[in-house]
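Re: beginner question about structure tokens

> Can someone show what the tokenized structure looks like for a real chain? I only ever see the sequence side.

Sure, here's an example I had lying around. Input first:
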Amino acid sequence: MRVWLGAWALILTTAGMAAHGTDRPTPDERMVIVYGKADGAASGWAINTIRPAGWTSDCCQYARAIGVNLVMYRGDWTGEPDRVIVLNVWPRKLPTLEAEWQDDRKHYLQVDPAGKFEAFSVMPDPKKGMTCSGGIYHGTDRVDDVVVFCDPGKATGIHLSWSMTLASTGADRAQVLDQFRQVVEQSFYMKYVGGPEQTGKAKR
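And the corresponding structure tokens:
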């Protein structure tokens, strides 16, 4: 997986601005927006999605420490990758999602030559203008990696990925994969107009 190390990110959640005392946050209160500045041919960007109920999102402490743009996790942060949803955004270098997959599979199989791969179905809203392609790597260590590459369009100058590591077995595995799928399918791109944090705006 690639990491856009040259970008900064700012995460905003409407839950943080809502009044206290709500036991069950609504989807709007769980909206997450991550911003990144322009970098070369890549315009400034903003990625939006809905955080699963009961999960925590972070861009500027734990995510920054491991060199990614966003993490989502349940419970306390442990530093372990298990069941942590990760967003990476990088300046587009390869032309297509298939090219991203070919490169990613090559590197994965160098680490685990006996690992297996299967498709992982995602269906983003076509009205949001972002195409995505998913898959799951089944490692010989009984640890799986689910990865989804997304392309918000050539004009944006970026590609991005959502990923998560989880054990190949577990009573709630299907539920966690479904929550991951929802994060991906609810995500969309907006162009970030540069400037100070207080005046910058994201536009669809």
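Each token stands for a local structural state, so reading them left to right follows the chain. The chain is about 15% helix and 35% strand.
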